[in-house]
């Protein structure tokens, strides 16, 4: 897909006016699916077996093994339904309408149980029985933005020569992210410790949280090289140091930019390029 086709009809002009109220509800739904995926999917590097993937209509566990069949759970944020299907032909669709965490977990486990699946899920995090907010219009706008970010991140991923992770939604923080690896091991770390052994840069999009009270794009590096902060950032981007250190581009900047797709791609390319130069320079020592 060409850059021009990605830039056209960008949904970034839609401000997240009412997203915030629906985010906690969507995050709970994603966390339930993530728990199922963690229980059923084979272990993958860097915990990729606990994350979700972007689909054409929302988020999905992707196919999970339940020998001799495959099963899948998805959040359809266009039809506003959660979906279960298996390779043996069983399928079910249920409406998304602000179910409480306890009610949603009960729905999902009941459907899975009828098909012979009984994943071990701790119900304690989902004990809340209060109904959540589910604004269909806001959720639809969020889904459109998510798809655009996925398309742009896929384009950026294709530009990188080194190893990268899948583009994945992490249910615990509800951020869409991708890891890029330098290929070097971190000095002083056990090479067998996959979480801390690999030098990496993380590119992501997150909703508001305790550190930053608005939707934002972030770039972090592990281990963090202080000289990275000498990199001039694109318009509206800045270096954040409270709670974590990384480059931040507020989502709001894209809603007013003439070419929001290019602003976001430029943000990723600028910081990655600076990191790559630092890595190459250190490797020559």
Structure described in brief:
35% of the residues lie in helices and 23% in strands. The protein has helices spanning 3-7, 19-40, 101-114, 136-159, 194-197, 251-256, 260-283, and strands spanning 53-54, 58-60, 64-66, 69-76, 81-86, 91-95, 168-170, 175-185, 198-206, 216-222, 238-240, 246-250.
How would you describe this structure to a colleague?
Helix 2 (19-40) runs parallel beside helix 3 (101-114). The protein has 285 residues and is an alpha+beta fold. The protein is globular and about 60 Å long. The chain has 2 domains: 10-126, no CATH class; 148-283, no CATH class. It has helices spanning 3-7, 19-40, 101-114, 136-159, 194-197, 251-256, 260-283, and strands at 53-54, 58-60, 64-66, 69-76, 81-86, 91-95, 168-170, 175-185, 198-206, 216-222, 238-240, 246-250. Strands 1, 2, 3, 4, 5 and 6 form a 6-stranded antiparallel beta sheet that branches. The chain has a 6-stranded antiparallel beta sheet with strand order 7-8-9-10-12-11.
């Amino acid at each position: 897909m060409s850059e021009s086709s990605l830039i056209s009809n960008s949904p970034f002009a839609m401000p997240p006016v009412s997203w915030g109220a629906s985010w906690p509800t969507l995050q709970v739904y994603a966390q339930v699916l993530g728990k199922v995926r963690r229980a059923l999917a084979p272990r993958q590097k860097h915990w990729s077996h606990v994350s979700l993937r972007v689909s054409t209509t929302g988020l999905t566990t992707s196919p999970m093994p339940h020998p001799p069949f495959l099963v899948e759970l998805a959040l359809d944020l266009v039809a506003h339904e959660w979906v279960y299907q298996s390779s043996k032909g069983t399928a079910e669709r249920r409406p998304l309408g602000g179910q409480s965490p306890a009610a949603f977990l009960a729905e999902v486990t009941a459907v899975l149980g009828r098909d012979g699946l009984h994943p071990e899920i701790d119900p304690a995090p989902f004990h809340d029985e209060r109904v959540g907010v589910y604004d269909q219009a806001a959720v639809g706008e969020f889904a459109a933005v998510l798809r655009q970010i996925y398309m742009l991140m896929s384009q950026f991923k294709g530009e990188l020569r080194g190893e990268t992770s899948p583009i994945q939604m992490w249910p615990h923080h509800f951020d869409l992210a991708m890891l890029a690896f330098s290929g070097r091991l971190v000095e002083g770390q056990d090479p067998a410790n996959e979480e801390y052994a690999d030098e990496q840069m993380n590119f992501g999009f997150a909703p508001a949280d305790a550190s930053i009270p608005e939707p934002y794009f972030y770039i972090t590096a592990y281990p963090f090289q202080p000289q990275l902060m000498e990199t001039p950032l694109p318009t509206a981007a800045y270096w954040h140091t409270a709670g974590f250190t990384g480059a931040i581009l507020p989502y709001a900047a894209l809603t007013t930019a003439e070419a929001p797709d290019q602003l976001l791609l430029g943000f990723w390319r600028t910081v990655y390029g600076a990191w790559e130069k630092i890595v190459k320079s250190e490797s020559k020592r």
